[in-house]
Amino acid sequence: MNQLVVTKSKMQSGVWQGLVTGSGDVAPALSVTHLEQPVDDVTLTAAKEAGGWLLQIPVPAEAITDGVQTILISDTATGDRLGSFTLIAGEALGDDLRAEVDLLRAELDMLKRAFRRHCVETM
Predict the structure, then answer these.
(1) Are 17 and 74 contained in the same domain?
(2) Reading across the β-sheet that carries 67-75, which strands appear in turn?
(3) Among 7, 17, 48, 49, which residue is least crowded by beta carbons within 10 Å?
(4) Do 33 and 73 fall into the same domain?
């Protein structure tokens, strides 16, 4: 069997969608987990593209919570991780974004001072 590849196509209405290639005409055996528990109602259907499979993963309600949650997609036969997607929500996200913006502001101020100093020195 060829190497399986999972490529995200979109996430819409709480369903993550991707294309699985590398298994030919045989449906690949995949495992989708959240916190080491299997995710229910995962579907895998033949795609219009030859040898491709449309993977649809409904986001479990348990994954919609404060903090960072990761859904893993693995090859059942080999145990290899093929892909993942992450959900980030809640107050933890706000703190992270504020910290990143503060860091960016500090770096921008440093660059502005260095540029102004450079302009003064070269005149």
Answers:
(1) yes
(2) 37-38, 30-34, 67-75, 81-89
(3) 48
(4) yes
